[in-house]
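Why do we bother with a discrete structure alphabet at all? Because it lets us treat a fold like text: something you can write down, compare, and reason about line by line. To make this less abstract, here is a complete entry for Insulinase family protein. Read it the way you would read a sentence in a foreign language you are learning: slowly, and without expecting to understand everything at once.
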Amino acid sequence: MNSLKTKITLIMGVVLAVQLCAQSTPQQKLLDSTIRHGILENGMEYYIKKNDMPKERASFYLVQKVGAILEEDHQNGLAHVLEHLAFNGSENFPGKGMQKFLERHGAEFGKSMNAYTAQDETVYNITDVPVNPAVLDSCVWILHDWSGNLLLLPEEIEAERNVIQEEWRAKNNAQFRMEETVSHIRHNNSKYAKRNVIGDMDIVLNFPHTSILDFYKDWYRPNLQAAIIVGDFDVDEMEQRVRTILSTLKNPKDEKEREVYTVQDHKGLMYGVATDSEASFLSFEYTMKHDAVSNNKKDREYIIGNMKSALVMQMMNRRFKERLMLPGASFTQARAGYYSFIQNKDIFTVGGLLKEDNIQKGIKDVLVLVEEAKQAGFTQSELEVAKTNLLRGYEYRHNISENISNDDHAKGMQSSYLYNEPYLSTGQLLLLAEESVPSVTLDEVNGQLSKWVTHNNAFFLLKGPEKKELVYPTKDEIQHIIEEAVTATYTKKEEQDGNITLLAKEPVKGKIVSKKILEGFENGIAYTLSNGAEVWMVPTDNAKDDVHYLAISKGGMSRLDTDKISSAKHLVPLVLQSGLGVHDQNQLTKVLAGKALKLEPDLGYYTEGYSGGCDLKDLETLLQMQYLYFTNPRFDLQAFEVYRDKTLSFLENQAKNPRSAFNDTIQQLMTDHSPRRPLNSHELLKNRVDFEDIQEVYKERYGNVSDFTFVFVGSVTDTLLEPLIEKYIGSITGNSARENWVDHGVSPPKKSTKKHFAFPISIPKHTNYVVHYSDTYPYDPGNNIDMEIFKTILDRRLFHKLREEEGGTYGARIGVNYSTRPRPNMALSIFFDCNPEKGAELLRLVSHEMNDLLRNGATEDEFAQAKEVLIKNRQENLKKNAYWLHMLKEYQLNGINELAGKNYEDILRKNTVVMFNRKIGKLLEQAEEYEVVMKPKG
């Protein structure tokens, strides 16, 4: 933007005359030495860091110590409204200039340009834009305009009111409403209880413009703001941009004091119950408030203290999980943690999910576990396992430090600005952990829990379904439960043997019988083992010591008898909760202490397999687990009963949840009520899911290793991998049988269909889903790219039409999926919530916009911007091993290598708007349209 370059030149002389250099920081900050931090004369802080993940991209953030807590009563909700308006016109980017400029460079609203408002802060971001100088200049100017140069035009304010109301409508679910009910207890009737960010809709829809202008002038100012910029650029040059542009911002002459609000302490226990007809589960939370460490004391010892806290929480939560695996567990989930609550308060909180038929016992059993740990202490063996896991976590984080994203770095710097939290490099943290964690004593961690669990300055909250037959405990009953837990007698747990091995005996290795280049990959290798199993290896340099892994086979649930499918849908959670080999889940967790890995089965309708990944040093352990999943899987009846009880309770209440009813209706329509696609229901789990059937399904679908292809992506070499696959995959007995999926004809109705239904909804709204589906779609890379372009253009058109022009919805979600299973098919879906009064009209506009794009085609600008989005996403994805793994899976299943340039970059580069417009109508002309609308009942 030439006008902005001119401004930079004019400003230079002014800024140099007012002492350009940054001030020294008034408060000591523990920061990674690669971060450039300073404070401008106007009080604005800046953090600048070079990071080349992703390469040639940069991200910009404006962080403000300004949130809903600063609103006066007549402004309740306006901090959030202002955040919305910040994208709708500024001094240097009038109208939609900001959005249009960023969209030309591959940004997408809601993704790579976004913002959020909280009670104490508001944060704006522009993520991963190109690093050419003009774009970098303009992005700093955007920070400048966000800071203090928004136009806030009357017409924009009026247009945004309904958008905010639709956001409120979309987020107003059971959890939101129950939290509103108990917020005064959580926040002890403080101002935090009166500021929920989304605000009072009566105020939002009717406030005079002066109210939001006053809020903006009072609080959007440089001495309450920080600019954070992370990316692949020269730090000195970026700092000069920041000083040149942002130093011109001024604070108001008679500025208001930015008060730090608090939640007052109180003696004893505050208690609250919140119920909702749409609640899907019953939960409790018991929280004790504590003074937070002051910002000027967040030093080296503070970090070490956080490490000790992490050890305590790890051990406490491990005890909860162990109890859940035992017979007769009276709760279905429990977790404890020590967290930041507000700026000057921390909390220790313990909570969980309860069974409706035994609420009080569930609460007591959780609190007994906490008191047992507090009074009798943890064991040395528990502490050693926790230390191993914690140190391994720091080591793993350091190993992948080159792949930490701009966003992740920015979050660390944001916490430094808002709360003076340390943000050190992963290497510094690893060194500190290695120096301090091994010497942490049992007395230190046991003492920590005693400081937290005070049973004073506390609140106890219950949230759950609204049912006549469900009786919630009274405050007196809760206090009695707490007293019983405190006064019980506890003895220290016995030490556990730490010398447990994963494998009882070593496998007899097989052999590699074939080794060749994997077609389409210069450095990829395809192996065939002596048992017939295929192995693919594709090395990448995307992440140091990182390995992504999967095993894939065709067939899945499509090869099962219909009466086995209900059981099959519960196979994965049962296997994961049963343990592995001779070890139950609790023992397995101890065996895997200090390992950075994940491996779990995956059973889909057309495929089965395993997926996971690991740090390179744990690759052998991952393959040992894979060996056991084939040769000695574990099915624990006790684990099945625990899982079933928990899931039954959830499904019973889920039937009253509008979103669940809506999703079920979509599934039934899109499968034409096929018995081979049963819904997850309370009745099916209770009466038709069988423990023995699940074991039979597992043996059937995972019984032949020779029908699997094993894929490794990342920091792997043939020298390292070959002996491991011979030993742990080649040793598994297989046969020569090969399977494919079966096409049972499961598909939507043959003709376009509408399904409108009414359902009890607490907050009236229309929930709308429109999908264009074709099972004659000509699947190939070029067509898939055209569908992605179409989706991107339609997404922007609907955003502008439905949200910005009509104010009819918070946003429409558009997705496109295409597959070769069981036959080539494509689905383009559109989803949105809206005011019931506008439902029919918005559906008409969706149809109009889509048909207009199909009939009249995209413009040159729309097409160019969509291509830019695809190019940007592709470049970012190619740096992710997870993307490579997914594409290799598709290659194995459909024979098309979409990682190859000829199947993506070459096609995209040659594509033109004329070619796209000529072709897109043909891709969708055979698609049928299916529409699901849920309306409020009554």
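What the structure line is telling us, in plain words: The CA atoms of residues 190 and 263 lie 6 Å apart. The first strand starts at residue 35 and ends at 39.
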